[in-house]
Design brief:
13 helices; five-stranded antiparallel β-sheet; alpha+beta
Amino acid sequence: MPEPRDFPILKITGEQDSLLDPYRHACRHLREYIVEPGDESALVAPALRGLSQGFVEARDAALATLGLRWAGIGTTSVTDPFLGALDGSGYLPSRLETATGGNPPSDQPNRRVAAPLFALAEWELFKLHGNRERLGHAFELLLADFMYREDHQRKRNGLVAGTPDAYALHATGRFMLGGRVVPSLAASASWVDASGMYALNARVLGEIARVLGRKEEAGELEWAVRDVAARANALMWHEKDEWYYDLDEHGEHLSVKTLASIWAVWSGIAPRTHAEAMIKRLSDPTQFERAHPYSTVSAGEGDYRKRDGAPGGVSRVDFSLPAWESLFALHKYSTAQRSCEAYLKRVGKVLADSGEMFLAHDPDRDIPAPLHDGSSGANAPLALALNIQATLGIYMGLRPHAHRHELELIPYLESTHTIEGLRFAYGTINMEVGPADKTGARRTIELMCDVPFRLRVRQGAKSQVHDLQPGMHTLQA
């Protein structure tokens, strides 16, 4: 297949190179789904096309930025039009109309608020590129958004809900009757994913504040994280089921196991014992495990195959990514990378059969799954962008930390593989990781860089740090 445009070039020696076909497809086609300001768009910056004609979605933009940030030139973030459209009340909009550039009107202001994922996107951009000026500008906007949420979105119990589209609520089958989400049921409940994203937003904003020297704000944000975490653990954790559940309007558990609860792990809400128990559930065949990880709804929920053959729950990369990141947070790297490898094999098979990539797949069969609006999500731009992040950030094990001049590498592949044209901290890195030795001997890493940095090579709990200057290097790891 032809090499990708603008993104790092990846190669694997041997048959496993076919696992990179989805990555190459995504890199070549992603820019077709970027709408630029001009005759077609009144937005202030490039944006990612949404699944709905004429609109761009904040959730898609925030998550897609994780993949787009690896681009060497051009657009690396599609959150800009949303940051530029901060509402006068102080919140970031959940969707924008491309024709007008505005937040579509609604009777209820809360329905217009985005899921709190922009701080994550900006933090990850900063960790790869180290643009402190952009981080400082974004922080002021994101802090205003956070204060709006503190004042308007916290419920009496201190937890949070959201709106169906802004959180892709339909993918987990919660609060649904007749195949559709009932907004009144959803609005009266407290959601574990919304509360987890809220805590993650506060935690990341706190990290940004510390980098910027904003100690007072950092302390206030840390308090908010602890407050949400304490309430979620007191009210949402089910001791017997070892899972976090949504709460109804009476504060009772809505006992449906969905992958939305994994946000409690990624956000840091879940203490270590809870997180370990949840990860164990994810690989339990009586709970979540289907033919392909991870389904948005547990197989243990009973009605996991409907009368028309449609699955109860789907396998979606935008829900798998929080699961992989949660495994990384628990230092279960190889588990996450094995799951990601299974995902890439599956996407590659469907791509070879159809010539397209899909956002959602059947959890048990190698076929696409229909989305709630009846579409297939064929070549959904979010799927393309997140496939890039899954390949580089999870499967290849690249974890950038430009704010401390460190690039972390967590090798998983046993065969030789190369990464060329990786942009990091205003420089470029090329590397070749040699084959793993069955006897346990060290692997050779050939590396060329034009920027000084530290390379941390991690295997399980062990890691080695190499301080590198611009030039050619041969490392034993």
